[in-house]
Design a protein that fits this description.
The protein is an alpha+beta fold. The chain has four helices and 28 strands.
Length: about 500
């Protein structure tokens, strides 16, 4: 297969960065050696050695990572390294991008400039072991070395400088002075290092979270509210699926356990079953009344199920897998109708249109694909985001769709043309999940920046922000009364007023 100009350029830049990393490592060794050799002479009073050491350390690490990211990889190798763990790779992308290449071109210049400064300093350093004796300040007389004079109580004292009386000649023969003993060299005084700063107040203790033995042990990565607005499904990286009563604020039952982390839990349109999926590659149909497993759909070699969506009539399900494949399932005949290939990276979200005819899939490289569910045919593909696209959801008209992303944006698309119509900006971390209100006028977003936000679809304005201050939020949903539900890394499920304000812990996680 021919190599593109971009690949040749990236390989050359990768080799340059690798050489830069090696130069930086050599300079780190020189800095450390120079500091050890110069410690007897007073160390590094200006701290320049520490500054150079920091520059070389950062240069070595960033150059190595840049060389590794720029070296082109095959699709198979890329997929093997891109397993999605609900947010650990949420910011993954396929290459460094134009801005990244500019930074990597400037980096060798910075490292080489720092190396030049370092070598200039090395040339001006005194030879190893050559310690310069301390000299008195120029405006002070040098101290007179002591003399050994025989003690004689009858001998007059020597005159003192500034006396007005002349010294009388001695009446006795002067006692010959003893030969002077050579003075021992006085080693220079090296000041003791300053003591480290003392913390005058202890660091504040983290606020303990409420705990409940019936709650999740790990992050809550999915929430789904039933059509009656009363029941809530939750999925967690602790592998469990739980069914909750929102009105009575209690756990109804543990609905089941996956062999690996659970990703998705959805109510079936019939109101009596739930469909759950996880990294074990299984899609499980469960009874809500007694948690009985009705059927297991096995994805086989297609890998773990990252996301799952169900058609409104309950006849079809669409699953996205970590191998980049999308599967269309016939839930009535309980078979896989189509295995759709084409994504080069792990699937990060799937959605089904309100009419059940089309499906939208996205991957961690930001590519979006539109599929015909019945025919299993690709309708359109386009590069929607610079980084992974998450939380895909169709608008109520079925002609538009929303996606969140690792590029910190939420975008509204015309899916017939692939044209971006609107952009919602405000998050400072990956937008990981989206939920649309029943009337389609508001959209809710969850982000790894630790907040959830409510947006007006028409204007694009942010209406409210919900921030528990406990870390990344991975799941959001609208409750039946319009309030907001969030779940995240703190293991809790919280309820927030839709208009903003303080949230309350609805279902606490277990104690660690």
């Amino acid at each position: 297969m021919p190599v593109s100009n971009t690949n040749i350029r990236d390989r050359f830049l990768a080799v340059l960065l690798l050489a830069t990393a090696m130069v930086a490592c050599f300079e780190i060794w020189l800095v450390l050696s120079a500091r050890n050799a110069g410690s007897a002479a007073g160390g590094d009073p200006n701290g320049l050695g520490l500054l150079l050491l920091a520059v070389f350390l950062i240069g070595a690490v960033v150059s190595f990572l840049g060389a590794r990211s720029l070296w082109p990889r095959s699709s198979a190798a890329a997929v093997a390294q891109s397993t999605q763990l609900f947010g650990r790779n949420a910011n993954a992308q396929s290459d460094a991008g134009p801005r990244g290449r500019v930074v990597f071109l400037v980096l060798p210049v910075i490292v080489l400039a720092a190396a030049g400064v370092h070598h200039s300093l090395l040339q001006n350093m005194p030879p190893e072991g050559d310690i310069v004796a301390s000299q008195p300040p120029p405006d002070q007389p040098a101290p007179t070395p002591p003399q050994n004079i025989a003690a004689d109580p009858e001998q007059p004292a020597p005159p003192v400088a500034g006396d007005d009386i002349a010294a009388a000649p001695p009446t006795q023969e002067p006692v010959p002075s003893q030969p002077e003993e050579p003075a021992e060299p006085v080693p220079p005084v090296v000041p003791a290092p300053a003591p480290p700063p003392v913390t005058t107040a202890p660091l504040p203790e983290p606020v303990p979270l409420p705990a409940d033995a019936s709650g999740h042990r790990e992050s809550v990565v999915w929430l789904d509210v039933g059509t009656d607005g009363r029941m809530l499904l939750s999925a967690s990286t602790d592998k469990t699926i739980k069914l909750w009563d929102l009105e009575e604020k209690r756990l109804i039952r543990d609905l089941g356990v996956h062999k690996d982390m659970a990703r998705t839990a959805l109510f079936m349109p019939d109101g009596v079953h739930a469909l759950t999926a996880g990294d074990d590659g299984e899609i499980v149909l469960r009874s809500l009344s007694d948690a009985t497993v009705t059927h297991v759909f096995d994805a086989g070699q297609n890998g773990g199920v990252n996301k799952l969506a169900i058609s409104p009539d309950g006849r079809r399900a669409v699953s996205g897998h970590d191998t980049g494949n999308v599967i269309i399932w016939d839930l009535e005949k309980r078979i896989a109708r189509h295995v759709l290939t084409g994504h080069a990276w792990s699937i990060s979200s799937v959605a089904v249109s309100p009419d059940g005819i089309r499906a939208l899939s996205s991957s961690i490289d930001g590519e979006l694909r539109l599929w015909d569910i019945e025919a299993g045919r690709l309708l359109r593909r386009w590069q929607g985001h610079e980084r992974g696209a998450y939380g895909a959801v169709f608008a109520t008209d079925g002609k538009h769709a929303f996606t969140g992303s690792g590029d910190l944006t939420i975008k509204l698309w015309d899916i017939d043309s692939g044209k971006e119509l609107k952009r919602f900006v405000g998050h400072s971390g990956t937008v990981y999940a989206l939920a649309l209100s029943k009337d389609g006028k508001e959209i809710l977003s969850a982000s790894l920046d630790g907040s959830a936000r409510l947006w007006n679809v028409e204007s694009g304005d942010q209406l409210a922000m919900f921030d528990p201050g406990t870390g990344p939020i991975h799941s959001v949903a609208f409750a039946g009364d319009g309030s907001v539900l969030t779940g995240g890394i703190d293991r809790t499920i919280r309820r927030w007023p839709a208009g903003g304000g303080d949230g309350v812990v609805l279902f606490a996680g277990t104690a660690e």
